[in-house]
Design brief:
Strand content: 15-25%
Bound molecules: 2-acetamido-2-deoxy-beta-D-glucopyranose
Helix content: 25-40%
Structural class: alpha+beta
Number of strands: 5
Radius of gyration: 18 Å
Distance between the termini: 65 Å
């Protein structure tokens, strides 16, 4: 009795620890670090919120179902294009920010990259690029 209570409690503890790692991580693939120096941290943060006409503040996802979109600030540009030609962009802010973080984890913070973010379109995945312009 006491033992099974212990098992239940440890299972709860383990799943509470595991959840943030397994469910909140956006999957990215095909990450290619395209070279160049790290871009300005603040400018990157502004540019990433300009995607889809702006996803700052209370806007929690890409608005308007565009077929492609760019987010630009200063010399920094993000772009999103669905992998499937007829698809539209349908990415949440959380997924967008996590995908960028995952690419930076591979290439280095604020370094230019191209990558595929899993999901993020009406059907299929999206190709994402961060570059200096
Ligand atoms: C966009 O995603 C949301 C939730 O992930 C879904 O409910 C909605 O149907 C999608 N819209 C399109 C146009 O695919």
């Amino acid at each position: 009795m006491l033992f099974s209570l212990f098992l239940t409690l440890s299972a709860l503890f383990v799943s509470a620890l595991a959840a943030p790692l397994t469910t909140r991580q956006e999957k990215v693939s095909n990450v290619v670090c395209t070279g160049g120096n790290a871009l300005d941290f603040h400018t990157v943060n502004v540019a990433l919120l300009q995607i889809c006409g702006g996803i700052a503040g209370s806007i929690q996802k890409c608005q308007g179902a565009p077929t492609s979109s760019t987010g630009t600030s200063g010399n920094v540009q993000f772009s999103i294009v669905p992998v499937e030609q007829s698809a539209t962009i349908n990415i949440s802010k959380g997924r967008w920010e996590q995908g960028i973080k995952a690419a930076f984890a591979v290439c280095g913070l604020d370094k230019p990259f191209t990558a595929t973010f899993v999901g993020g379109a009406s059907t299929g995945d999206v190709n994402v690029e961060l570059k200096q312009i």
